Structure formats: C-alpha cells, structure tokens
TrEMBL record:
This is DUF3624 domain-containing protein. It comes from the Bacteria. InterPro entries: DUF3624. The chain crosses the membrane at residues 22-41, 53-74. The keyword Membrane applies. Keywords: Membrane, Transmembrane, Transmembrane helix.
Amino acid sequence: MTCPHCKNNGWFWKKIGRCKRCMDQLTVLSVLCWIVWWFLFKDDPKSIESITLIIAGFAFNGLLALHLWMRFVISPWRKRKKNNS
C-alpha cells in the first residue's frame, strides 16, 4: 500500500480510521460482494459460494464500520478531549 499509515509496521489500532484509501477499498469490496451475492447466489443460500460471499460481505462491512467509527467518533472525541485538557 502507498498510504504512510498502512506502510508503517505499527499496531493495528494506530492505523485504523486514518487511511481514506483503505476505507474506499472496503466500500467497493463490500458493495461488489453484496451485489454479486444478490444476483448470483441469493436463490441458493446454503451453497458454499453463497456462504463464503455472505461471510466476506459481513467481514468487509464490519471492518469498514470500525474504520468509520474510529475516524468520525473516536478520533474527534480524543482530539476534543486533548484540546480541553
């Protein structure tokens, strides 16, 4: 990755929520995953392909939600707390 936050070998929690490129990629992957599932595998939800896409979709959505939570809730809260101290 070309992002300076992602190239750094730091801890996971120091990286999450700082990289717009990662959030864009997760958004695209999530949307594509659910679109593919909807058009190709919704009729047979017990097939291995369908289950795999469902799990991948939830994983992408969960990681994206964590990125957004850190970027728009936790980081501003920490910054505001630091400025008030």
